[in-house]
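Hi team,

Filling in the usual template for the complex we talked about on Friday. All components are listed, including any nucleic acid strands or ligand strings, so the model treats them as one assembly.

SUBMITTER: L.P.
PURPOSE: interface mapping
COMPONENTS: two
RESIDUES: 689
SEQUENCES:
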Amino acid sequence: MKKVLLSPLDPVHDNAVKLIQRKLRDRDYATILMPPGTTVEEIVDTAIHEKPDAILISRTLGYQVAETLGRLVDLAEAAGIRETTRIGVGGMAITREVGAELGFDATFVGELKMTELLSFLENRKIEFLDGDDAAAENQGKPDITAGYTYQFKDSEIASLLDTIAEQALHWASTRTSDGIKRAQVRQQMLETDTEAEIAQLRNDYTKLSGTDIHSFYTQGTLPSGVRWLETKEVQNLPSLLETKPEKHKLRHTQAKPLFFVQYGTGCPVMDIVHIKASEAWGADGVLHFDPSWNAQQEGLMEGLLSHEHDGTILTYENLKLIREYIGENTLWDVRGHRGLNTAETQILGHAAGAGLFKINIPYGSTGGGTDPARLAVDGIYSLHLAAQYGIPFDIPGNDELSGVPPQKTFAGILIMMAIGLKLGARPIPKPLMCYSPYMAMHGDMDDNMIDMNTAKLAVWQTIVDTPVWPGEPIGFMTHSPERVQSATTTAAHAALATSLGMDAATIASTDEAYSKGPISLQARVDTLRSVRDLLRFTGSTHFQATPQAQVLMQELREGIVNTLKKIAQRGDFVQSIYHGDLGSPEDGIYPGRVGQGTVQNL
Amino acid sequence: MPKHAHPSQSAKDRIVDAIDIETFFYCKDETEAKHLANALMAEMNLPQGDIVFLEHNGLGARVRLRSYIHLPGDHYRWLEGSQRGQR
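RESULT (copied from the run log):
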């Protein structure tokens, strides 16, 4: 049995050594614990008599760190202890540089990681950057849909969805668009090696594109605020990112949810830096956001392009560069649920290595601004691709932000699920945790924000066995530009989502409500830290659905059924969007107009 | 110093995107707080300054100020290791 002497070299702080003692005892180590205020001389004296295999010192106070620890090393050396006893040091005041400079055998920084400590005590090579967190990472990339059967539990809803989805698929089967044709050409370009063939295909692609994209390919003109990335900018990235971070875990005792953050600063290089920092601070997944104009014109550009404004331009080269730097186990979602390039986005995302697609026809063709018929044709084609690639697709319910009541938004999400399932795809509903205009008007959150959000999240498991991913981001419209407030409200929503067993959640930065500039990197860290601390606070405790939440859940279910009945009776999914069955001008949204009249009959 | 860093880089060059300053001004109202916020940014020679948050109550105001040192699409000095390229 190995013997370890533990001592704080600190007047008051001894939590770390007490915790280490408990964990070492569990592993059958013999331990001797010295109290706070122990002197250097007392530690050396005890070591001479007890002859431990190792001494672990912790130091929290920053005052006279080098002097105190240096004296310990010198005294231990003079007493001949170091021939048989190895000395490690850690704590808030310790850096790797200080530990190495003073001559300690090992230095432990940051949070306690037992794998590092045990490696040291067992005289194995210490993988400082490969501790508990990396062990968790080695379990591989998580699959949000794993274990879910998608069996419907609510037969009335299942029957209505079957009717609606069949009709939508039949309608789309005789239609196409230039967006779909471009996607097919792009697919061919990605599969072709010869320059001559690619040039010919690019020519075909250009003919199918709108004015700006046509100019890009024929005259080399770039839209305003867009520039080519320079070779040296890309070449400098590897050295910038060579230091592997010590990845923090957001969850404490909880197994889920996975936490996603959105990026799209405009510049792929800046995105990569934001992604790497978000990963280091615990993000499990990232979502790619493109500029809104990218979705409103026919066609996409090519090459490594940087953009001065929000949203990073969708090109194969941009996506591939970003993917190269995304962590092996980080999930990557590419938004393509709206706009005239929805189908091609899935082609590019798949080719670049995306693990998730984001597609919602009702939202994209109202709040997203695209013509419902056009997005239905392109969106259903995209669901075919998601099924073909075996890539799950998530369905954001952000039309609620325009005032649509949750029952209508949820009905739209369920229709997307049903269409996807019929095609063999794996859908993930994303009900919005928010303080929406509808809630404000109807007073459903006047007392608290827990009951309604609980009802909105819990209702899904009464309908269908599905993963649920509240989005996007959670706490929408509860954020202010004040960073503490913003971090707190995100963390509160994260804690509720976690308590309710959600599978994933998208979180905002503390710049969520700041609209006059890009999201700053420190604002991302703010929220990741706050979520981590609140999940540490709540652990495995659970919120209970109150009677009021149960009532709201029942009301939601009835609202969903009534909405689906109306659509089924109309007998035309696309016309239902035009007529406001899934959100009307009275609710606050209108059918989109971008791409109107561009659907072609096959 | 990381390999990519140039010895002549200032600390400001190494700011990835924005610098935030949080403080509390002793001032009579929001207007004065805004004036002080803008004056502080100028005194600190911070470009493209903006007030992210300001709340006056009683004797003063809690403020958060921001200056973007590098905007997306700029040539980032922390990446280049040189002084060139600032927008």
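MY TAKE: Residues 547-570 of chain A form the longest helix (24 residues). The interface with chain B takes residues 225, 227, 230, 232-233, 236-237, 239-240, 242-243, 265-267, 269-270, 273, 277, 306-309, 480-483, 511, 514, 516-518, 520-522 of chain A (CB under 8 Å).

Thanks, L.
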